[in-house]
Amino acid sequence: MNDTAKQLLRSALLLLLAFFALHGLTTVGKYVGYASFSGAAGNIYELVISHRIPVTEWSGQYGVTVRVDGFTFQQTHTFNPGEIANINLLYNCLQPDTQHETYASVYDPLTLDFSSVTPATAAQVDAFYGLNSSGASSTANTLTANITFQFGATTITAPGTYTYKIDENGAPATFAMMALKDATGKLFFGSILTNFTAGYNGDIINYQMLVPMLQNQSTTKYYYFTDPNDHCPAGIGSLPPTGLLIGNVSSQTGARLQGVIVDVASTSALSDATGFYNMSPSAGTWRIYAILTGYIPYVNNITITANNTTIHDIVMIQNIPPNPNTGIGPGIGPGVGPGQGPGVDVGPGKAQGPGQDQGPGEAPPVPFVEQPKQIEGTDYIISLADLRRKL
Questions:
Q1: 353 CB-near residues (< 8 Å, 6+ apart)
Q2: Contacts by 217-222 with C-beta closer than 8 Å and gap 24+?
Q3: Where are the beta strands (DSSP E) in 252-297?
């Protein structure tokens, strides 16, 4: 081999080594970081580091789903990849005395054939949405449970998952969702409604759901609907004994709020343009909820007396996310609730309402820094040789 050939070979080897070195640095850079902590001398500390990867193949939604007589508008939402949206859903019919679900599909529900509803497979969801079936965010890795529920009179067990609620210990078991397809193979997703409870961020809600994003589009539009088999004859929800509940909903500044969902004993109403609402819930002592996006959910107690009118005004507190650059760690949790609610009955009985209450509040997601833990215990003397051997 002459000198020219040797020089070419050395140059090729150097280029190859440089390529592998740069590739190695790029790869290592994804998994190697730097963390430091200054602690008091003589103490042993435990430093916990978590690695979180944003998921853009799926988006999440949460909120309140209730029945409001006469509400027949088609509700939709267009998601950005990885978005988590607060979506309150209203339906003209949620059949009484049965389990309820809310459904979402990229297809208009008028184009779906509900004559036969069956479970969707992970492969079908991946193929339609363009998800990587071997990736961490594949349908098989996301919908890891089997959810059993009723669609009309049919019992279905479909692939799904449970999503966490705040302070839920162990595996989640409250908010269930599932993947389905209609008689023609069109996909849709469902979420089983729960009683009003605190969701993943402390908001009072009754559903949470994940929906996949179309990978060949920058946004994905979903249509919402309920079980088409629900039957709500006229007069349901007005059976005696009931009482009339009326009131006004306003902000802390006194501005009247429109579109607030007010729910008492599974009876719901919307506040109008003047902030006024009215409904006829069953007689008894109940929790009253008022929900409006951008405001802390209002939660209070109320007593409804049969054949009497109860006036209950509601003051909503605007939800202002804290500055993530102040405070300690992820911020302050529940916060202060709904404000004042007089609840003064009119007519015989004159039961005095509850007044102030503590509400759930909301702690918006902010960067989470877990402080190292100081470990108290007995001091031990370890020789340098032992230490080197352990390392």
A1: 300, 301, 302, 303, 310, 312, 341, 342, 343, 344, 345
A2: 218/80, 218/81, 219/78, 219/79, 219/80, 219/81, 220/59, 220/78, 220/79, 220/81, 220/106, 221/76, 221/77, 221/78, 221/79, 221/106, 222/76, 222/77, 222/78, 222/79, 222/104, 222/105, 222/106
A3: 261-264, 267-270, 276-279, 284-291
> Which pLDDT tens digit goes with each residue over 200-241?
999 999 999 999 999 999 999 999 999 999 988 765 544 568
How far apart are alpha carbons 46 and 37 in whole angstroms?
Answer: 10
| Distance between start and end Cα atoms, the chain | 48
Give residues with Cβ within 8 angstroms of 32, minimum separation 6.
none
Write down the pTM of the prediction.
0.67
CA distances from residue 268 to 40, 64, 150, 331, 380 in whole angstroms, order as listed = 57, 11, 23, 33, 65
Cβ atoms of 260 and 314 closer than 8 Å? yes
Average the pLDDT over each of 111-125, 225-239, 257-271 and give the range with the smallest value.
Answer: 225-239
- β-pairing, 44-46 with 373-375? antiparallel
Quote the CA–CA distance of 37 and 43 in Å, as a whole number.
Answer: 12
CA dihedral 134, 139, 140, 146 (to 10 degrees): 180
Cα distances (Å, whole numbers) of residue 17 to 9, 20, 22, 24: 12, 5, 9, 10
Dihedral (CA of 362, 365, 367, 370) sign: positive
